[in-house]
């Protein structure tokens, strides 16, 4: 019988080494005796180093509530002061573009009246064009912002003739405006000054850094015809869109009693569904 070739390893004494004692070797192609073997030392459990961790102190429920409330208040104040604010027009001066009871968000980013004077120089100058609707600090009542439409830009000459508006000698096309009084008052001496100005105003030249604004409801709007121009530094924002609209009466100046205030909110709660103008929600203000 022909015997096959015998391995050289079979003729040698191979040490009895457990497999787990082989940890590393120098080269894969070396002889067995060249393997580097590390013996695993015996380590007792009580010899292991124990690290003590600092226990995490849990905050009390009341403290967590206070911190959450404080963060929410700060966020709301910053958001409504510098970014966007929920507001409304309490009068009919912007009808039909904005109705009494329309609640909309006001874009306040980069409008100077929202920031301290020393920061205004570093803010970007927002572009303004004729026809923009803007909100600004009230020239007559500081607690209620006014919302009007820009009619005259800096340097423009504006005139109202028999209810029609002329800018730099050309009649302005105004599809957004309405007139609720068909009577046109002239400049007769016996005509009240308020009615003269309403239907015949100017001509006036708009100063630099200022704007002439009017309400879309031309016969029922307290605007630049009566108290002058709006400066850039008085503008607080631009309306964005209507998020809720509720049929309500126009604002009546004067302080309300607690009873009247409660009755007003109670009426809104009772008639929320039947007096909400659902079709106006999401309307873009322009």
List the helices and strands and how they pair.
Elements: H1 61-82, E1 84-88, E2 102-107, H2 117-120, E3 133-136, E4 146-152, E5 157-161, E6 164-167, E7 170-171, H3 193-199, E8 201-205, E9 210-214, H4 224-227, E10 230-231, E11 235-245, H5 258-270, H6 272-275
Antiparallel strand pairs: 1-2, 2-11, 3-4, 3-11, 4-9, 5-6, 5-8, 6-7, 9-10
Report on the architecture of this protein.
19% of the residues lie in helices and 20% in strands. With 286 residues, it is α+β, with helices and mostly antiparallel strands. It has a domain at 63-254: Ribbon (Umud Fragment, subunit A). Strand 6 (164-167) and strand 7 form a beta hairpin. The chain is elongated, with a radius of gyration of 40 Å. The model is unreliable at 1-9 (pLDDT under 50).
Can you describe this structure in just a few lines?
The protein is 19% helix and 20% strand. The chain has helices at 61-82, 117-120, 193-199, 224-227, 258-270, 272-275; strands at 84-88, 102-107, 133-136, 146-152, 157-161, 164-167, 170-171, 201-205, 210-214, 230-231, 235-245.
Keywords summarizing the entry:
single chain; 7-stranded antiparallel sheet; Umud Fragment, subunit A; alpha+beta; 4-stranded antiparallel sheet; 6 helices; 11 strands; 19% helix; 286 residues
């Amino acid at each position: 019988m022909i015997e096959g070739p015998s391995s050289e390893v079979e003729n040698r004494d191979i040490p009895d080494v457990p497999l787990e004692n082989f940890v590393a070797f120098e080269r894969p192609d070396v002889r067995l005796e060249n393997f580097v073997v590390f013996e695993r030392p015996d380590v007792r459990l009580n010899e292991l180093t124990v690290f003590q961790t600092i226990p995490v102190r849990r905050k009390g429920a009341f403290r967590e509530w206070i911190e959450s409330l404080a963060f929410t208040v700060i966020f709301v104040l910053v958001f409504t002061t510098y970014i966007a604010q929920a507001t409304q027009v309490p009068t009919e001066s912007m009808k039909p573009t904005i109705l009494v009871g329309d609640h909309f968000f006001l874009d306040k980013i980069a409008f100077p009246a929202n920031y301290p004077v020393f920061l205004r120089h570093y803010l970007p100058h927002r572009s303004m064009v004729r026809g923009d609707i803007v909100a600004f600090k009230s020239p007559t009542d500081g607690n209620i912002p006014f919302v009007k439409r820009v009619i005259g830009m800096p340097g423009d000459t504006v005139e109202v003739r028999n209810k029609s508006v002329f800018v730099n000698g050309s009649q302005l096309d105004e599809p957004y405006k309405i007139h609720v009084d068909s009577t046109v008052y002239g400049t007769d001496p016996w005509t009240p000054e308020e009615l003269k100005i309403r239907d015949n105003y100017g001509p006036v030249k708009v100063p630099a850094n200022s704007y002439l604004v009017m309400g879309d409801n031309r016969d029922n709007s307290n605007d630049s015809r009566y108290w002058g121009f709006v400066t850039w530094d008085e503008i607080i924002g631009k309306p964005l869109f209507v998020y809720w609209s509720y049929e309500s009466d126009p604002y009546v100046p004067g302080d309300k009693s607690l009873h009247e205030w409660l009755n007003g909110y109670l009426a809104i709660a009772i008639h929320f569904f039947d007096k909400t103008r659902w079709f106006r929600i999401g309307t873009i203000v322009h």
